[in-house]
Amino acid sequence: xxxxxxxxxxxxxxxxxxxxxxxxxxxxxxxxxxxxxxxxxxxxxxxxxxxxxxxxxxxxxxxxxxxxxxxxxxxxxxxxxxxxxxxxxxxxxxxxxxxxxxxxxxxxxxxxxxxxxxxxxxxxxxxxxxxxxxxxxxxxxxxxxxxxxxxxxxxxxxxxxxxxxxxxxxxxxxxxxxxxxxxxxxxxxxxxxxxxxxxxxxxxxxxxxxxxxxxxxxxxxxxxxxxxxxxxxxxxxxxxxxxxxxxxxxxxxxxxxxxxxxxxxxxxxxxxxxxxxxxxxxxxxxxxxxxxxxxxxxx
Amino acid sequence: xxxxxxxxxxxxxxxxxxxxxxxxxxxxxxxxxxxxxxxxxxxxxxxxxxxxxxxxxxxxxxxxxxxxxxxxxxxxxxxxxxxxxxxxxxxxxxxxxxxxxxxxxxxxxxxxxxxxxxxxxxxxxxxxxxxxxxxxxxxxxxxxxxxxxxxxxxxxxxxxxxxxxxxxxxxxxxxxxxxxxxxxxxxxxxxxxxxxxxxxxxxxxxxxxxxxxxxxxxxxxxxxxxxxxxxxxxxxxxxxxxxxxxxxxxxxxxxxxxxxxxxxxxxxxxxxxxxxxxxxxxxxxxxxxxxxxxxxxxxxxxxxxxxxxxxxxxxxxxxxxxxxxxxxxxxxxxxxxxxxxxxxxxxxxxxxxxxxxxxxxxxxxxxxxxxxxxxxxxxxxxxxxxxxxxxxxxxxxxxxxxxxxxxxxxxxxxxxxxxxxxxxxxxxxxxxxxxxxxxxxxxxxxxxxxxxxxxxxxxxxxxxxxxxxxxxxxxxxxxxxxxxxxxxxxxxxxxxxxxxxxxxxxxxxxxxxxxxxxxxxxxxxxxxxxxxxxxxxxxxxxxxxxxxxxxxxxxxxxxxxxxxxxxxxxxxxxxxxxxxxxxxxxxxxxxxxxxxxxxxxxxxxxxxxxxxxxxxxxxxxxxxxxxxxxxxxxxxxxxxxxxxxxxxxxxxxxxxxxxxxxxxxxxxxxxxxxxxxxxxxxxxxxxxxxxxxxxxxxxxxxxxxxxxxxxxxxxxxxxxxxxxxxxxxxxxxxxxxxxxxxxxxxxxxxxxxxxxxxxxxxxxxxxxxxxxxxxxxxxxxxxxxxxxxxxxxxxxxxx
Amino acid sequence: xxxxxxxxxxxxxxxxxxxxxxxxxxxxxxxxxxxxxxxxxxxxxxxxxxxxxxxxxxxxxxxxxxxxxxxxxxxxxxxxxxxxxxxxxxxxxxxxxxxxxxxxxxxxxxxxxxxxxxxxxxxxxxxxxxxxxxxxxxxxxxxxxxxxxxxxxxxxxxxxxx
Lengths: 299, 799, 162
Hints:
The complex is a heterotrimer. Chain A is of the alpha+beta class. Chain A has 2 domains: 69-179, Uridine Diphospho-n-acetylenolpyruvylglucosamine Reductase, domain 3 (2-Layer Sandwich); 186-294, Enolase-like, domain 1, CATH 3.30.390.50. Chain A is built from 12 helices and 14 strands. In chain A, the strands form 4 sheets. A 5-stranded antiparallel β-sheet of chain A has the order 4-5-10-6-7. Chain A has a 4-stranded antiparallel β-sheet with strand order 11-12-13-14, sandwiched between helices. In chain A, helix 5 (99-106) packs antiparallel against helix 8, helix 10 (234-240) runs antiparallel to helix 11 (247-260) and helix 11 runs antiparallel to helix 12 (271-298). Chain A starts with 14 loop residues before the first strand and ends with a helix. Chain B is of the alpha+beta class. Among the domains of chain B are: 18-25 and 478-624, Aldehyde Oxidoreductase, domain 4 (2-Layer Sandwich); 367-467 and 628-798, Aldehyde oxidase/xanthine dehydrogenase, molybdopterin binding domain (Aldehyde Oxidoreductase, domain 4). In chain B, helix 9 (329-343) packs parallel to helix 10 and helix 13 (504-516) runs parallel beside helix 14. The two termini of chain B are 45 Å apart. Chain C folds into 2 domains: 3-79, Roll (Ubiquitin-like (UB roll)), CATH 3.10.20; 88-153, DNA polymerase, domain 1, CATH 1.10.150. Chain C has helices at 25-32, 88-95, 105-118, 124-130, 142-150; strands spanning 3-10, 13-20, 51-54, 57-60, 73-75. In chain C, strands 2-1-5-3-4 form a 5-stranded mixed β-sheet, with helices on one face. In chain C, helix 2 (88-95) crosses helix 5. Chain C starts with a strand and ends in a 12-residue tail after the last helix. The model of chain C has no long low-confidence stretch (mean pLDDT 96). Classes of the chains: A alpha+beta, B alpha+beta, C alpha+beta. The interface between A and C is medium-sized, with 31 and 35 residues.
């Protein structure tokens, strides 16, 4: 129902804190509990608040906790939760080893949003349409979650609980996202379909596969905007595992993906268009990843 | 015409408001603030159709707010767009409503010292609604027993009953259409549908009102006419016009959405008068989206022709959805019919236009008025006929279009004129060469994933609604201008005519400079308001340069005559022997006698002489109506690339031609064409406002997330867009100029439709042509092909 | 509600404000400073009209809490022309007639300036990618694209004295 919202301002009042360390942040989270929301780049949270979908009494900013910004490459890759989408997109190890993630970041609606928005914020909003989510799922990323009571690691596949719902428990902060080192012969790709370029996806896909000669030895396929959460399509992955790569198996996997997703019709696209488009971009992303895997091996 | 014979007209000077705009110092209505200013908000209906049973503002008032309810406002109905004359003016609204007729209808105004407090007060207001049947489609609206949205409207002082929610109906008959169809050897009929898009002007509508100590008001508002805003506010609040002053501020785009006085303007005035404080209302984007959209249309078009394709009869039924209020359906229907009548020669025609109320955001003018809708139907159908006959669409159209010597209906039956300039053949020839028309693929011949196609459509817009009638006109159309010579030889141009951004005011300053013989930079655009300027009807109907420029030229001619007269006395020569020309080195206009070289002086020297000798100010104040409304022709050639896997359509290239007569601002004119392409592309391919058919709510809730307008990414590359201008001279326009603005978009949707046909061999009769529609059509074609041996579409029905 | 002290540098000048946590940087700039070149367009980060530079980066001031900008270096469109001279990009906008109604222009120029700072001679594709979030309804973008690409050679323009 039309609510007489006012996006010129943020109508509801709230308090604000800007901790300088994680410990300070944990203390604030524990103190304010469910009344508090964490803010990273704010490009989603403040929109939600302006649309009056949420109205927290406290907003706690993570912007001043420096340790959350680091992008470090070792055996794999660790992305600080507060690294901006732009920083992730241009980081050399991302570009070198995680093409699908770089592409997902670059598909993020606009450059200003890329600069303001963070990788952690994108994941914690748990939007089914989050561009980085299918890429992170395809890389089998792990969320590093900390609280005053310790830390735990959550597989990306377990991180999304529903639209706007993540696996974070009260008092927890996502500190980093870790991506395992790509196996030799890996290739990945991300594709997105949207009404215009600077828009939320109608459907998006991240794929990552490992190629051994003409065989696919491992594969992960994840889609966004096709279910209540970003999802992996086990059936499509299984159809490819151990198979010879090529148009026929890619088409087959794409068909399974289109069948197994659970899209809805909304203002951006109909359910049937999402299924159709999913088939196209899963197929195309697989082809690209397959090609890239060969190029990677040739280097 | 790109002319070298003029000095100022056609020059490449920076637009006069340019520095202010690139430095952020230009002021738009949302930027205005005055001392002691309060902030206003508007409580809008969450229901699409509901009676207001009670309004309780006590809690808001307890917070210190002032509220404006239906009980506080004058209850005489008005129409917010007073361009039409009283017999054509359908009045159905009040400042705030006593019945919600669409989601977002303004019900209560609230003002408080800060926006935050106004916001709190707004939320404290309690309204009890009696919810009524919600009508979201024209079909529902016209059913017997459908809930009436308006029982009556006020027309020329009398209550006019509204039956079956039909707001207005207009018919036009030319010749004998039955006889025409009886003689036709081929008849073709198609149904078209155009969408209800949002103007998406960058500036949300805003207004500041300051009550004055003498009982008057000063108003800064988003508007396309400061004078019409003044007249309406004077009428509504019963204030003599001498005490109503509306200030001219820059428009942040408008595209027709402020021809009418926007809903917040009279609310702001009411609040300011009640509060005794200046009040500002700067609308939110979501309010703005609930305030105006383009008229959507359903058009059934039937054409009858001879075997060779010569048209002899036409019948059009156009239904338009006006939404909750009838802002301008009467002129719109006249315009749609008139534009159709002016595209191709039709000896016999019948037109029935019907406007229907629904419980949705009120529709209003948007760049092109009824022309984009008419062009989409006519230009697509003419393309289809040409293909069926095996003719080149360019030749087919050139053979039958209404051109030189023909009659042009400038926005309807009430404004007609003889066509005296016509660049159509040149436009189509040049456009065809630039796009590579002869190399376009055969429709339906491609088989790959990506398929390219080239489409062409032509058309026009009117240049103003000038007419020759002394009385009984449907529309008011005149402009005024004051031109005065300053004491240093510079010139002030004082004109209330609004510039939407296309550079109209800058162009008119060039027209004045050209006439006076001074360099462009010497003519200044004065800030102005309704108290210090002459009436101008509004910047609509592509009339700015043609009509407003003509008024300024008339004043400049008078000023020039006075300059020459005085200079002749000072220089002791006959006035007829003098000329004035700009001297760029001196930065001045120079008055001299070609036969006596030593008899010369600058305009500045003359001005100083007049000043120091107390001889008075040279000035002229002129008002005029154009008696013509020449067509501003335009041609569109676009190339699209269709991705048959995703259904997405990409715009690859375009060649856009304009016959605007003399081109006053060449680069800005080119920019207007490209801007028209961008809006046209959105209209044709992506933009659509979706409504919930049950609740009448905007699916987007007014957040600018849907109805996506094109960005740089969706636009063709710079080198892939050509613009060109016909070499014509309009004898009735200032220095040969006619209009351009709205023409820049009118044929766009048809050109895209025809280009998609060229790529796929499939016709689309409904815009936007979304990926989903493309895929559905491809799938349907595939199943038809697999069922039928002969894939050829059925030819026009022989009668 | 609690007020917070925010100290920042605005167009080179240190400023201090007392704001509520819910106040937006956009409204501090427009309402308190009366610097109205920065525009409200959509309120939700879809149009780019409110773009300013925060610590050198284009930032949507309609989605930036004023409290978050504590300690920042903020530059608005009014701060681009320095010492009476237009920024070359501002001049290029005029040379290329990239301004029509002008409402989107400040945001366009702020984002274009950021691109040119990173990449003084961008290709057309780079301009299109970088500026896809800046909506303009008037121009169709061609003149704006040209203005950004041509800024490197726009030269200087000294404004008439105020």
